[in-house]
Write a structure and sequence with these properties.
With 224 residues, the chain is mainly alpha-helical. The chain has a single domain (5-176), classed as Glutathione S-transferase Yfyf (Class Pi), Chain A, domain 2. It is 46% helix and 6% strand. The protein is built from nine helices and four strands. The chain has a four-stranded mixed sheet, with helices on one face. α1 (14-25) packs across α5 (120-139), α3 (68-83) runs antiparallel to α4 and α3 runs parallel beside α5. The relative contact order is 0.14.
Length: 224
């Protein structure tokens, strides 16, 4: 029997889930542990590979095509946006974070129609799509609305025994207990101007303490 691979990562780490699915699909034994300084993959008799290094991670995994790298990058970007979503947030703030996530999901949409559920790209996408599906179902966010390719791929993966065996009800409970908290990624700063249009650019109201009277209007209490 071959030596097992080892994964050190939190239980709800998206990339760790993807790596575990890939190794299982290749009939390779894998052990997973949450205790460690940094999320990493340990191949048998090899140095650890940090999970945030996409190129090194794919190089360490067996039989991964070069086309998987942009998919992995897109999944990392989308997960960062998903991790920033808080369904209990002020509606306007929630709308903006949803917009940012959907921009990232649109980058994956063209890849979905030609992606088999257990292909390299499909396994990389599966943990993200599973989490998006949980948010859609439990919080009514419609994150996959208008994305038929990803919706169809998600439906196929839901009934796939290997994928459903890892991304199960116990994992769902952990994900749903942590909306709005960053898991496995750090959400990048967002330029909201594209979502808000011209009115969103440099039109934000100043705090009340910083408002001042416009001397050109007189002393009638007008503010600018």
């Amino acid at each position: 029997m071959s030596k097992p691979w080892r994964l050190i990562a939190p239980a709800d780490h998206v990339l760790a889930d993807a790596v575990q699915l890939v190794l299982r699909a290749r009939q390779l034994p894998v052990l997973r542990d949450e205790c460690g300084p940094l999320p990493a993959l340990f191949a048998p008799d090899a140095d650890p590979v940090p999970l945030h290094d996409g190129a090194a991670l794919l190089a360490a995994l067996p039989d991964m095509p070069g086309t998987a790298l942009p998919v992995l990058g897109a999944v990392q970007s989308a997960q960062a946006r998903l991790a920033a979503i808080d369904p209990a947030a002020f509606p306007a703030d929630l709308d903006l974070t949803i917009y940012a996530l959907r921009q990232e999901l649109r980058a994956l949409e063209p890849l979905a129609p030609q992606t088999a559920p257990e292909s390299a790209a499909g396994l990389i996408m599966a943990p993200l799509l599973w989490r998006v599906g949980l948010y859609d179902f439990h919080f009514g966010l419609f994150l996959l609305s208008g994305l038929p390719g990803l919706t169809a791929l998600r439906a196929q993966q839901r009934v796939n025994p290997r994928i459903a065996g890892l991304l199960n009800a116990g994992g769902a409970l952990r994900v749903l207990q942590r909306p709005g908290q960053l898991t496995g990624a750090t959400a990048p700063p967002t330029d909201w101007s594209r979502a808000l249009g011209p009115e969103g650019r440099e039109k934000s109201l100043l705090p009340k303490a910083q408002r001042r009277k416009d001397p050109s209007i007189g002393s009638g209490g007008h503010i600018r």
